[in-house]
Specification:
Radius of gyration: 22 Å
Number of domains: 2
Order of helices and strands: EEEHEHHEHEEEEEEEHHEEHEEHEHHEH
Strand content: 25-35%
Shape: globular
Number of strands: 18
CATH topology of the largest domain: Metallo-beta-lactamase, Chain A
CATH class of the largest domain: Alpha Beta
Number of helices: 11
Strand order of the largest sheet: 1-2-3-4-5-6-7-8
CATH superfamily of the largest domain: Ribonuclease Z/Hydroxyacylglutathione hydrolase-like
Low-confidence stretches: none
Structural class: alpha/beta
């Protein structure tokens, strides 16, 4: 399978949590947690269309202001998803600045919070000086925060001491694989039309729908969608990335993570402490590297990416990765 999601930790395993995921052929990106974002170039940051915040601890939200500053001058919206009361916290951040010179700016920030069963949406516009407006309920069945033709994001709520922390699964609903040799055989030119073709397949558009296909010798041909699918592509299970951070090392949390992360191509999961420091992990309401690896193995994940390491292991950089990998590989 060719990757459609390209994830990277913005700050490495010891820095603030922030997983940047670029979407192939879309000029879009998603951001999971919003720690320090200075390592992102403005060009990369401006590709972000949605931010998924696990909870409002400072190391997970400190980058919001930097992101807002970049988007302030853009004619593009941004949506932030998070746990209960995230709208009030964002409103407080916005109220801390003076907004008397932005009346004509088109930027709109939409904040959506999910409490485990219901959703709530609050809108903040630059034209309205970022005062909360247009509060409404929004449908979020089974924790499905976002559902588009080419990706969806589902959330679960984990216990992190006395607060909830959201974990997220990013999934491609259906992967449409293109056969390059078939393109050459039929004389079709590759290009942006293939992205539109994949979207039509995912929408289950009628097979007789005509598609305009550019030809290698010039010009285009109208080919029925069903014929085109049989000639140049096949369908398979889509790619899946699961993001988990700040969770108590409890059996209940591990069971929830296991269900969310089932069959992930990549499980990005916190590993702040060594299992030798399990008591410390319980006191701080975090997982250990061994538990992170074990849950990845139980879930059947193909790859493991551990992060959010405690600074106490700075002089033993490989310890937590090795411990997690050992448990992951069994």
């Amino acid at each position: 399978m060719r990757s459609v999601f390209f994830p990277r930790l913005v700050n490495g395993p010891f820095g603030d949590p922030a997983l940047y995921v670029r979407l192939a052929h879309r000029r879009e990106a998603l951001l999971f947690d919003c720690g320090d974002l200075h390592p992102l170039t403005p060009r990369d940051a401006l590709k972000v269309r949605a931010v998924f915040v696990s909870h409002a601890h400072i190391d997970h939200l400190i980058g919001f202001d930097a992101l807002l500053r970049l988007f302030l001058y853009q004619d593009a919206g941004l949506t932030l998803y998070g746990p209960p009361k995230i709208a009030e916290r964002i409103a407080g951040r916005l109220a801390g600045y003076t907004w008397n010179l932005i009346e004509g700016y088109p930027f709109v920030l939409t904040v959506r919070e999910w409490n485990g069963c219901r959703g709530r949406e609050v809108r903040f516009s630059a034209a309205g000086a970022f005062r909360p407006e247009r509060e409404r309920a929004w449908e979020c069945p089974d924790g499905r925060l976002v559902e588009t033709d080419h990706y969806r994001v589902r959330a679960i709520s984990l216990d992190h001491g006395d607060i909830p922390s959201l974990a997220f699964a990013l999934e491609e609903p259906l992967h449409v694989a293109i056969h390059k040799d078939a393109l050459e055989r039929y004389g079709y030119s590759p290009g942006p039309w293939l992205t539109r073709f994949k979207d039509l397949v995912r929408r289950d558009v009628p097979p007789q729908t005509p598609c305009r296909v550019p030809l290698q010798g010039g010009g285009t041909a109208a080919v029925p969608l069903g014929d085109l699918l049989r000639r140049i592509a096949h369908r398979e299970r889509g790619m899946k990335i699961t993001y988990v951070t700040d969770a108590d090392p409890s059996p209940e949390n591990l069971e929830r993570i296991n269900a969310l992360a089932a069959d992930s191509h990549l499980l990005a999961i916190e590993a702040p402490f060594s299992h030798a420091d399990l008591d410390r992990a319980r006191q701080r309401n975090h997982l250990t590297a061994q538990l992170a690896g074990q849950v990845g193995r139980w879930a059947g994940a193909a790859r493991l990416l551990v992060f959010h390491h405690s600074p106490r292991y700075q002089d033993r950089i490989g310890l937590l990765v090795e411990e997690a990998e050992k448990a992951f590989r069994g």
